[in-house]
């Protein structure tokens, strides 16, 4: 048994195959997934031709130091916000050789949620160097920490692939 379920491996394989054929690279900026997106991609043989780097920025200071997320953004909107996800993805592109990047920030639970930002809330952003940007606000619900994280990986891989395939 592998580290990831078959559907995630299939999505990662498709990205590695399609990005290799197109000569493109990807980078990740991850908070609540803690590196699982880059882990899924690097589970695939040949991924070194496609995966440039992954940033695991679990703390606010890591988001600021490694990705350039503005402290004011974190203070005003919080770490789990559309604004932070967008700045994370911009930072991942700016600080890598990737053509497409994806960023995720959320509350996997079981604690840490609030009425305004419940457990299972995840903001994802994917951006191509050419300018296209996708944002998704996902409300997975309090389905369990591992389930929220795996659902986020699935959504992130789908977003990356959609930027390539249009």
UniProtKB/TrEMBL annotation:
CinA C-terminal domain boundaries: 11-163
Organism domain of life: Bacteria
Gene3D superfamilies associated with the record: CinA-like
Record field: transmembrane: none
Record's protein name: Competence-damage inducible CinA family protein
């Amino acid at each position: 048994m592998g580290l990831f379920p078959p559907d995630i491996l299939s999505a990662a394989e498709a990205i590695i195959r399609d990005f290799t054929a197109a000569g493109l690279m990807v980078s990740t900026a991850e908070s609540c997934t803690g590196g699982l997106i880059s882990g899924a991609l690097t589970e695939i043989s040949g991924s070194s031709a496609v995966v440039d780097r992954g940033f695991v920025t679990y703390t606010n200071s890591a988001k600021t130091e490694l990705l350039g997320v503005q402290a004011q953004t974190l203070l005003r909107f919080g770490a789990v916000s559309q604004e932070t996800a967008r700045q994370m993805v911009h930072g991942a592109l700016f600080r890598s050789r990737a053509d497409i990047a994806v960023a995720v920030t959320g509350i996997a639970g079981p604690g840490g949620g609030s009425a305004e930002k419940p457990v299972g809330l995840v903001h994802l952003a994917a951006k191509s160097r050419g300018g296209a940007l996708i944002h998704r606000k996902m409300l997975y619900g309090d389905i369990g920490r591992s389930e929220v994280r795996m659902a986020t990986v699935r959504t992130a891989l789908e977003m990356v692939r959609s930027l390539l395939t249009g």
